[in-house]
Each structure stands twice: as C-alpha cells, then as structure tokens.
Amino acid sequence: MDAWRIFATALFVAAGITLVLLTMAKVRERTGSGGQTAVAGAIGVAAMLVTGVLMVTVLPAAVTWTIVVVAGVVVTAMVLAS
C-alpha cells in the first residue's frame, strides 16, 4: 500500500469526522429529534467509511486527492458559516 493513500485517507477521515458532527448538529437544530440525529450520523459515518476504503484500495490518485480537497473546502465553508 502506498504512503500517499494512507496520508490522503487520514486527511479525509479528519475532514469526514468534522463533516459528520456538523451535519448531526444541523439535523438536531432543525428537527430537535435525537433519533433523526442518530440516523444522520449513521449515514454519514457509513458514507465516510465506504469512501475511505475505496480511497485506500482502488481509486486513482487524482480522484482520491480531489475528494480530499473537496472535503476540506466543505468543512471550511461549514465551519465559517456556523
């Protein structure tokens, strides 16, 4: 396994955890429901897990780094907007 794959996946996971937490906070704020918040968190973690496994195993470098950059930009925008 290449070192760049591990590094890119680690960056994605760091951004992904932040995205999941921000999404859960937005869902909790809008609905006030703990159940819907848990569902949003579970979906976010599952999507992050699948994407992370694909990044570490089969996706080409350009796609992997594009995902990392997009996740970073989205996290930055969400943090600045909240």
* Number of structural domains: 1
Mean pLDDT: 95
Rough shape?
elongated
Order of helices and strands: HHH
The secondary structure category is mainly alpha
Distance between the termini: 38 Å
Sheet having the most strands: none
Number of helices: 3
Strand runs, count: 0
Strand content: under 5%
Low-confidence stretches: none
Helix content: over 70%
Q: What radius of gyration results from the CA coordinates?
A: 14 Å
Give the key terms.
82 residues; mainly alpha; elongated
Structure description:
This protein is an all-alpha fold. The chain has one domain. 90% of the residues lie in helices and 0% in strands. α1 (3-31) runs antiparallel to α2 and α1 (3-31) runs parallel beside α3. 12% of the residues are buried.
Write the layout of secondary structure elements.
Layout: H1 3-31, H2 34-57, H3 61-81
Helix pairs in contact: 1-2, 1-3
Offer a quick outline of the entry.
This protein has one domain (3-81).
